[in-house]
Amino acid sequence: MMNPRRLVLGVLVVASVLGLADSLVIAQCCSCSAAQCPTDRDARMQWWREARFGMFIHWGLYAIPAGRWQGKAVPNIGEWIMDQANIPVAEYEKLAEQFNPVKFNPDEWAEIAKSAGVKYIVITSKHHDGFCLFGTKATKYNVVDATPYGKDLLKPLAEACRKRGIRFCTYYSIMDWHHPAQERGSDKHYNPTKIKPGRKAEYVAFMKQQLKELLEGCNPDVLWFDGEWPDWWTEADGKDLYAYLRGLKPSLIINNRIGKGRKGMEGLSKDDQQYSGDFGTPEQQIPATGLAGVDWESCMTMNDTWGFKSDDHNWKSAETLVRNVIDTASKGGNYLLNVGPTAEGLIPEPSVERLRAIGRWMAVNGESIYGTQASPFKATPWGRCTRKTLPDGKTRLYLHVFQWPQNGELAIPGLANRIVDAFLLDGGKKLEVKSHHAEPRIALPSTMPDKTATVVVVDVEGTIGG
Ligand code: FHN
Question: Residues 177-194: pLDDT tens digits?
Answer without folding.
Answer: 999 999 999 999 999 999
